[in-house]
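Sequence in, structure out. Go.
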Amino acid sequence: MLGPQSDPSAPAGVDLTRPNAARIYDYLVGGTANWTIDREFAQGIIERIPLARDMALANRLYLNRVVRHLTRLGVRQFLDIGAGVPTAGNTHQIADEIAPDARVVYVDNEPIAIAHAEILLNREGDPDRHVMISADLREPDDLWREARGTGILDLDQPIALLMVAVLHFFHAGPDGREVGAESVARYRELLVPGSYLAISHLTDDGVPGEMVPQLAESKRVYANSVNNQLLFRSRPEIDALFGDFELLEPGMVWTPQWHPEETGPTAPAISLPTPEYSVIWAGVGQKPTARFEVR
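Output:
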């Protein structure tokens, strides 16, 4: 169990009457941008899923390894959608370890995440290379224009689009339908050939049997209490989010299995009995370059 902490000041207009998914995750990975209502809810999740903190940390370490691996492959531009509340090991911090010229645009629509990102970037970021914007995953073209407008990224060149632990929330369109998969399809169209797409997604497909009722109960309490509803996709449904993108080795795997050699020396230890206890499928795909038929 994480220790007690005092509540920070909240940005004006932020609703603290209900727990928030980004702040709950922040608490689980050891952050401080959360409130009593978030911590109490998170402790309830830990009571239902004793491995919840390790699952969240495994996902966070997956993000770190993706950034480290792609930076080694030559990527210098990252668009991190649904970045959440900044905590240790942010995308720009990991990328800068390898490439001090790497550029990162963070995206979220949660006021506290945005406010804390701006504080972090003002304190230790480079305004010519790092920025946070407010935009909605459900509006790909608007988000793309906002990202382009920062002048940080050249979206006519390959980038890495990060959608880590964001698509397993229900993204409702104007008619109430879940539009997450449609949005991802549009992002795939917007990315230029050679770009990368990284996804991690909560699932109840292929998880250990005892985790199934725990996940179902957590989904129920999220629906009743939190501003974001959980959405479990099967492995084939998560695979489909990549479209015709070519998955990098080792393909679609549980979060601890994706390039474990890229784990940093100061990474926190996690205690999952086996990888499938992470309950999150993860992978990175690359948009194919144009192929020309030889006649």
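Check: Residues 21-259+271-286 form a domain with the Rossmann fold fold (CATH 3.40.50.150). The two ends are 65 Å apart (CA to CA).
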